[in-house]
Design a protein that fits this description.
Blueprint: E1 2-8, E2 11-16, E3 26-35, H1 38-46, E4 68-76, E5 88-91, E6 107-111, E7 115-117, H2 124-127, H3 130-145, E8 153-157, H4 161-172, E9 177-181, H5 185-193, E10 198-200, H6 204-211, E11 215-220, H7 225-232, E12 235-241, H8 253-258, E13 261-263, H9 270-281, E14 293-296, H10 300-308, E15 315-318
Length: 321
Amino acid sequence: MKQLQIVSADSVEWQEVDMPQPGLGEVLLKVDAVTTCPHWDLHMMSGEPMFPGARVDYPLTPGQPGHEIVGNVVEVGPGVDDLAVGARVAAWRDRGAKVRLGGYAQYVPFAADSLLEVNTDLAPQSIASLELAMCVQVTFDRLRQFGLLEGKRIAVGGMGPAGLVAVQMARAWGAESVLAVDPLQDRRERALQLGVDAAVEPKDGAFAEAAGGPVDVAVDCAGAKASVEFLMGHTLGAVALFGVLRDAVAYGWQQWRSKVDILGYGSHNRDAAERALALVEDGRLDLSCLVTHELPLSDYVEGVELLRSQQALKVCFLPHA
């Protein structure tokens, strides 16, 4: 079988290796598709750590950083009772760095408790990004916990893949209105196609005209200082932080005076994944709209260049093409 390995910055190898075997608590997957997690792929290919204070050591573990996968179980390892050969599954959890093989491969041994069985009728592009949907659902679970979702006017900042998931979840979980905020016109147009009430640039006048004033709640999916601070200045209640922040954000007199709360991120969990999967299967969450390009996995470098140039939103790689 073949696997991808990033051996240095902007350099990969498409390697022929022996078929892996599932270990304790694992199943062996024949991978149908893997979608990019753009920040991970861009950081690992550029040699920049994903999180402040971390480091990138080459060569990466083979198959990393691939983790948004869908496939079929072809072998069951010891200690697995809830999945059988032939089951169609998607990863709901990134297993982290300490794995033998990441998702960028034709066959992958995968922890069974990090997989959910999915409808066989779903196209690969419609379910491969389940892990991302779980991540976003964690933020919406926190909003629901504090009564900050149903019947609220919500703005979402950053119409990358996470933002496009977030605007759909806001609608699905009962928001009164959903406003998309992004500086790029094509990203705003994508949000409009998903049924948001309005999509605007992060500018005071445009936002005020579209929203009629500050919104009740905002969700930042950009992870940028400017985005978070803009949302804090246009929100009456809370700003939930989903995007990974790498810079300090100013919370001062104006935010204190306006009683704006900051809601941090929660923990990844299976319940959130199951709620996200239910939204996909009943048609309230479309993950296929995130995929703009489809390529053989052997063309990984080309796919990353499409992400880097912002021609692609997400790339769906096909390991067996």
